[in-house]
Design goal:
The structure holds four protein chains of four kinds.
Chain A (H helix, E strand, L loop, with lengths): L18 H6 L14 E7 L5 E7 L1 H5 L3 E6 L10 E4 L2 E4 H8 L4 E2 L5 E7 L2 H10 L1 E6 L6 H5 L25 E9 L2 H6 L3 E9 L11 E6 L5 E5 L4 H12 L6 E5 L15 H11 L3 E4 L2 H7 L6 E9 L5 E13 L6 H8 L7 E10 L13 H19 L3 H8 L18 H10 L1 H4 L7 E9 L4 E9 L5 E5 L7 H13 L6 E5 L16 H28 L6 E4 L2 E4 L10 E2 H6 L1 H4 L4 E8 L5 E12 L4 E12 L6 H20 L30 E6 L21 H13 L10 H11 L1 H5 L1
Parallel strand pairs in A: 1-14, 12-13, 16-17, 20-21, 27-28
Antiparallel strand pairs in A: 1-7, 2-6, 2-8, 3-7, 4-5, 9-17, 10-15, 11-12, 11-14, 15-16, 18-26, 19-20, 19-25, 22-23, 23-24, 26-27
Helix pairs in contact in A: 7-8, 10-11, 11-20, 12-13, 15-16, 19-20
Chain C lengths: L3 E7 L2 E7 L5 H8 L18 E4 L2 E4 L12 E3 L12 H8 L9 H14 L5 H7 L11 H18 L1
Helix pairs in contact in C: 2-5
Chain D lengths: L4 E3 L4 H10 L4 E4 L5 H6 L7 E4 L9 E4 L2 E5 L4 H5 L2 H6 L1 H8 L4 H4 L4 H6 L7 H8 L2 E6 L2 E6 L4 E3 L2 E2 L6 E7 L6 E8 L10 E10 L2 E10 L6 E2 L1 H7 L6 H14 L10 H24 L2
Parallel strand pairs in D: 1-3, 2-3
Antiparallel strand pairs in D: 4-5, 5-10, 6-7, 6-10, 8-9, 11-12, 12-13, 13-14
Helix pairs in contact in D: 5-8, 9-10, 10-11
Classes of the chains: A alpha+beta, B alpha+beta, C alpha+beta, D alpha+beta.
């Protein structure tokens, strides 16, 4: 903590630059943009989980007065069946275009089939009802294990399981098989004193951002297109839309609105290409906003999964072997986060023998999208539960057991690389030393602990820094601010410049106003875009020093930048009054023109993060209701640039994990229709469900960043499920293996464990 | 010689099951070329949808990055994030 | 199509508008009056993003017809500050980082104001239940609850 | 597409006349917390919306000879703030106050909750346990109906075409009476009852002399469980009597498996809530 004071601004809790806009309703989110003469676009969605689209007759809808355009899958050009770069993403464009608008088949209930643009919402709605779709309903499959079975309804007749040698000839819903190995798991189990084996499941959960998807497109007759949309990455939106609609990137300018939450779910396109296509056909701007129901039915939740864990340990607590199988639902198209799920599963631990197999499985559900540490929470739910079972069985404190097996510098992971400097041990020790863990568990309550790991990412960022005529500074970058990144970027720029934070104004620029920026995702912005901002600011400082050198007629090496002004590097240089930013700005025109700085980079070296969560809860044995009394999230956060927003990431991630653990799930009927597409029955935590969420920020600076930044947003969603499951196991003696641990499910499990009560 | 590491299934599919291979190369691209020369089946599979970990540091897209004599270079599935 | 003519008071200003009988107050605010600070998160009263105060009662604008505002007093987020001075809750939300993405914030602030207007001395539990109708997916509510409790404490201090 | 009309009459007579004139296309708007959601979802498309919140009789709370009369359109928030009603019928007030969030409380009414005819409506088991009588007015004048006779099935009522629920009357009852309502929801707020249980007791010298028990969300309509009441009346609310009442509740359940709960769970919880609600009602009865 004392180290933090090295900085004047970094590590302080300043008001965010967009604060006033966001507390007064001024800030404009996706649905808040309008253009004169805009039309309302609406989507017709499949009522079937799986059906061949034999024909679509839009003639009546198109003839309805007020309808200006209708589009179907035929309006979107076919795309190659191969992975291609779109922006910086690798995607199968054949699948992306089909997810945006179905072609030959509807693959899930809610799949977009057609869309209309009309003068009013009511006309658009009526037009949808006039579109006649001739479906041939096919058998469907929802569950991941069912989808893997022989004889399951096949979603894609061309799909063969990748990663299997020899290549299979038969079509399968298993898109890919992955395998990781370290040592010899079978031999490892031979050395174990205890072996525990369990199967776990999770249900798909939605990111649950409060702001629905929204887009406003304006296509001009000359081919130029403007788009306003709520997204985690407007450059990604540009990339996808240009690919799907055969536009040049220079023809499409995308302006991001303020974004009302994303958590990974706003890194792909849904409405955007449709709004553009409708606008192109109608010759007018088209605005589209999803209803909450559409958000649930048609935008990506994360995978549900099935995980089998076998773990062996010696009496002293040494974990000697783990064998893990992970099967994740990808939704209707291949591409679940099964890779990271497999890799993260045992990443917290230094274990000699590890074998992990993963399956990427399609089924008749909406295509999954990223959600905070994609895939990791699912395998961690299983692995961390089993680690807790080992601790229980051996009567070892769960943090001590983890310390005994903790990954550290030099640990070779099961997926290949050897860890450099990491903070798992420090995080466990901080958890052990936390006021929460040191406190006694209240009578009637029980305590659970679990850990989590995420890689974090860097990737492409661009930034610019401009000095205004009065010496105030504008920082321009291209990442939508989803949780306070303007503040953290401005803090780093102010620190570099040595000027007041309030003199630095950070701006989120559109795709035409700054170079490429990868999505706001993977907790990369403060790290990677932060690095770009620091470099752009340093570039600008270099110029400021040059201007001072010119004015003083000295060599530029004789000028230093300190506390917001150019100073002679020593008395030998000569006696010069320091030149402030304001003074240098005032004379800029006479010393060489405007003073700007730029930087572009592919940031490498995002340091991995570890988290440990502690929960105290009680279970009402009569109802199966869990009440969380105390919760602490401990995490290795690198340097907390703005501690409040770092704490906020830990608290928000923990809350989402608590929802995942206790109540959130997609519920389907026998026909494959989603039964709970709303906030009433998709039960995200409300304020009265939660206690305060205490945080412990373990600051192990990341050497790859000038301020030691490490991504912090992913890790906190990983530990909550197993921490809660373990606390419940310790409270009741019943180990839950299926999420969510909803009251009916827990009650049934408790009753099954005590047959006498059930018989009553 | 850098130590190149492939995941188990990737190695089984394309590299005769070899997960650790000592190879000459001063950049990631040189290592990829050397790998492809030894395992022709690998061609085209190392420059697309893959992350590269050089001495414990994850690179989302790496091609020209320099690697040291004793570097460990692992090719792993790509990593996104929320 | 015959529209309903409504005369009402919004954020202290006498306001007139025409609306369709089935048009919600939320749609009137956003589409007819350009008061887009009030957000739509669900349209079914389950998220609280469209919270407004009508005649001193907290309601969801999506669950009220525009026509019902006749003769009422409506407060939206746009009317919460006074001139160039933010309401203490607005100021505290900024200072304590009680928002991340900010889309639930207008509704959350209106609900918090309604809570403190009726109960200047709420317990943490009362704040949590008072804001239970407002979903926030980013913050885990911790900093929001703390900000509201802080404002309440400060206001008690100043009125003492 | 037919665009709806909106009217806000000042009297019940006027409202009834408007409904009669709408030829079955009229819908009463009280709090609107169900109606607007249904309109948005396209489930209903009324030709006429009759807003009853400007009718004095439907928005007033009054006491007449020990009985309480509560207008059908009085909002939950107003009921919450009414100290007299809260003291007399804490269970009924709690039940009404459990309908939705603070925002919903600012609008929702017991009349709307009843007429929406959800088996899971929170206010209804409490009103049924209280022995509340609904005053209903229609084209053929006024009639008094016990609340339990109004729901006819999910989304259906026994109201005749054009009839409006005007108010509820909560009867006067002897000293030593108390009521309670409990529901089970997975979260702590913002949920629909998985099971609801209303209990209304009168105690004299430690013995239960009168009881009414009602259950919600365990059958197509809210149930008045007479077997449970019988088990309690005449007892000292000992464990045996309460267990017998809980067993009667479980036996009365005819629930379904759905996204909110299972048959097994709902049946079990009906017994659990009965026990807990009896304990609260008895405590209130003793201190009254």
């Amino acid at each position: 903590m004392s180290e933090q004071r090295r900085y004047k601004w970094v590590g302080t809790r300043q008001n965010r630059p967009d604060g006033a806009d966001k507390v007064t309703g001024r800030a404009r989110f996706g649905a808040d943009f309008n253009l004169p003469g805009e039309l309302v676009g609406k989507v017709l969605r499949s009522p079937h989980a799986h059906a061949v689209i034999k024909s679509i007759d839009v003639s009546k809808a198109a003839a309805l007065p007020g309808v200006k355009a209708v589009v179907t899958g035929a309006d979107f050009p076919e795309q190659p069946d191969q992975l291609l770069p779109a922006g910086e993403m690798q995607v199968n464009l054949r699948d992306v275009t089909r997810n945006v608008m179905a072609k030959e088949k509807a693959l899930y209930e809610g799949h977009a089939i057609a869309a209309v643009a009309a003068t009013t919402a009511a006309v658009a709605q009526e037009a949808l009802s006039l579109i006649k779709v001739d479906y041939e309903v096919l058998p469907h499959v929802i569950d991941v294990q069912e989808a893997m079975k022989d004889g399951a309804p096949i979603l894609h007749p061309h799909m063969r399981t990748d990663g299997v040698k020899p290549a299979p000839e038969k079509a399968s819903n298993i898109a890919k098989r992955l395998e990781f190995n370290k040592g010899d798991a079978a031999a490892g189990f031979g050395k174990a004193d205890i072996v525990i084996e369990r199967e776990f499941t999770t249900q798909p959960v939605h990111q649950g951002y409060i702001e629905p998807h929204a887009a406003l497109a304006s296509a001009a007759e000359d081919g130029q297109v403007q788009l306003w949309t709520t997204t985690q990455g407007h450059f990604q939106v540009r990339g996808f839309c240009c690919r799907l609609l055969n536009l040049e990137t220079s023809q499409l300018r995308v302006t991001p609105s303020e974004i009302g939450g994303g958590f990974g779910g706003k890194t792909v396109v849904y409405l955007e290409p449709v709004a553009i296509r409708l606008s192109q056909k109608a010759g007018k701007p088209v605005k589209m906003v999803m209803s909450r129901e559409e958000v649930f039915r048609a935008s990506g939740p994360t995978s549900g999964g099935w995980v089998k864990v076998k773990m062996g340990a010696k009496k002293d607590g040494t974990i000697v072997a783990a064998d893990i199988t992970v099967a994740l639902q990808a939704g209707a198209f291949a591409g679940s986060p099964v890779g990271p799920s497999c890799m993260c599963s045992m990443a917290c631990y230094d274990v000699e023998n590890i074998h992990v197999v993963g399956y990427d499985v399609v089924s008749n559900r909406p295509k999954v999208a990223a959600y905070r540490a994609p895939g990791a929470p699912i395998s961690a739910w299983a692995v961390e539960s089993v680690v807790d079972m080992v601790a229980q069985e051996l009567n070892i404190d769960p943090i001590d057991l983890r310390l005994k097996n903790a990954a550290k510098q030099g640990t070779k992971t099961h997926y290949g690389p050897t860890f450099g400097v990491i903070g798992m041990v420090e995080t466990l020790e901080a958890a052990k030393a936390s006021p929460h863990y040191k406190s006694k568990v209240k009578p009637g309550y029980a305590r659970g602990v679990a850990a989590g790991f995420w890689f974090n990412v860097g990737a492409d960022s661009s930034a610019a820094a401009h000095v205004g005529e009065d010496g105030s500074v504008t920082i321009i970058s291209g990442n939508p601010d989803i949780g306070g990144s303007r503040a953290s970027l401005a803090l780093m720029a102010a620190e570099e410049l040595g000027i007041d934070y309030k003199k630095v104004r950070p701006i989120v620029a559109d795709t035409a106003s700054i170079g490429f920026n990868f999505v706001t995702g993977g907790s990369r912005v403060t790290f990677a875009t932060g690095l770009a901002v620091v470099n752009a600011t340093r570039d600008m400082i270099g110029q400021l020093k040059q201007r001072a050198a010119k004015l003083w007629e000295v060599d530029v090496d004789a000028v230093v930048w300190e506390d917001g002004e150019a100073r002679p590097s020593s008395t030998n240089v000569g006696k010069f009054e320091p030149l402030s930013l304001a003074k240098l700005a005032a004379s800029a025109s006479r010393t060489g023109g405007p003073i700007n700085g730029h930087a572009q980079l592919n940031a490498q070296g995002a340091g991995p993060g570890f988290g440990v969560h502690i929960v105290d809860l009680k279970v009402d044995p009569d109802t199966g209701i869990c009440t969380i009394d105390r919760y602490t999230a401990v995490q290795d956060v690198g340097t907390a640039i703005h501690p409040s927003y770092v704490e906020g990431q830990l608290q928000g991630g923990a809350a989402q994990g608590i929802g995942w653990a206790l109540n959130e799930e997609y519920i389907y009927d026998a026909k494959g229709r989603l039964l709970n597409p709303g906030f009433l029955d998709y039960r995200m935590p409300v304020a009265s469900d939660l206690p305060m969420i205490e945080t412990v920020l373990v600051e192990v600076p990341n050497p790859a960043h000038p301020y030691g930044v490490r991504g912090v947003g992913e890790v906190p969603i990983i530990p909550p499920m197993a921490a809660i499951g373990s606390a419940i196991a310790r409270a009741t003696g019943v180990r839950m293996v299926d999420l969510p641990i909803s009251p009916p499910r827990l009650s049934a499990a408790l009753d099954a464990a005590t047959p006498r009560m059930a018989a009553e | 010689m850098a130590r190149v590491i492939l995941t188990y299934s990737f190695a089984k599919q394309f590299a005769d099951g070899q997960t650790e291979i000592e190879l000459p190369g001063r950049t990631v691209r040189q290592l990829i070329r050397a790998l492809e020369a030894r395992f022709p089946a690998l061609e085209g599979h190392l420059e697309g949808d893959i992350a590269v970990v050089i001495d414990g540091v994850v690179h989302q897209n790496a091609l020209l990055e320099e690697v040291a004599e004793d570097s460990e270079v692992a090719f792993i599935p790509p990593i996104g994030g929320g | 199509m015959s529209k309903t003519h409504v005369t009402t008071t919004i954020n202290g200003e006498p306001t007139e508008y025409l609306c369709e009988a089935s048009q919600s107050m939320l749609d009137v605010l956003r589409d007819e009056l350009d008061l887009t600070g009030t957000k739509e998160g669900c349209g079914s009263g389950d998220c609280g993003a469209c919270s407004i105060i009508v005649d001193d009662r907290l309601v969801c604008a999506c669950l009220m017809l525009g026509a019902e505002a006749e003769g009422r007093r409506v407060l939206t987020i746009e009317g919460m500050s006074h001139g160039d001075k933010l309401h203490p809750l607005q100021q505290k939300f900024i200072e304590m980082a009680a928002l991340q993405c900010g889309v639930c914030t207008p509704g959350m602030l209106i609900a918090a104001k309604a809570l403190l207007d009726r109960n200047p001395n709420p317990s943490e539990t009362e704040v949590r239940f008072g804001l239970a109708g407002n979903l926030c997916r980013c913050t885990g509510y911790d900093k929001i609850v703390r900000a509201v409790l802080d404002v309440a404490a400060e206001q008690r201090e100043t009125t003492r | 597409m037919m665009e709806a009309q909106y009217r806000a009459p000042g009297s019940v007579d006027e409202a009834v006349a408007l409904m009669a004139g709408a030829g079955g296309k009229g819908r009463v708007l009280a709090g609107g917390t169900d109606l607007l959601v249904q309109m948005r979802a396209g489930m209903v498309a009324p030709g006429l919306i009759v807003d009853v919140k400007r009718i004095a009789e439907m928005t007033a709370i009054s006491q007449i000879a020990g009985a309480w009369r509560v207008g059908a359109a009085v909002t939950g928030a107003e009921i919450h703030d009414h100290a007299g009603l809260k003291k007399a019928w804490p269970g009924v007030v709690e039940a009404i106050n459990l309908i939705g969030s603070k925002q919903v409380q600012g609008r929702a009414s017991a009349g709307g909750n009843l007429c929406n005819a959800s088996p899971a409506a929170d206010s209804v088991p409490a009103l049924v346990a209280a022995g509340a009588i609904a005053t209903v007015q229609g084209p053929n004048g006024r009639r008094e109906v016990p609340v339990e006779q109004i729901p006819a099935g999910p989304g259906k009522t026994s109201l005749k075409p054009g009839e409006i629920v005007v108010s509820f009357t909560l009867p006067a009852r002897p000293a030593g009476s108390g009521d309670a309502y409990l529901r089970l929801i997975p979260r702590t707020e913002m949920d629909i009852a998985v099971v609801g249980c209303g209990v209304n007791l009168t105690m004299k010298d430690g013995t239960c002399t009168a009881a009414r028990v009602a259950l919600g969300a365990v059958a197509p309509t809210v149930l008045l469980v007479e077997g449970a009441a019988k088990a309690l009346v005449g007892s000292k609310l000992d464990d045996k009597a309460i267990e017998a009442a809980a067993a009667a509740c479980r036996a009365a359940c005819k629930p379904i498996d759905d996204k909110r709960g299972t048959i097994v769970y709902r049946t079990k919880i009906a017994g659990v809530l009965l026990k807990r609600a009896v304990a609260i009602a008895a405590e209130r009865a003793r201190s009254n």
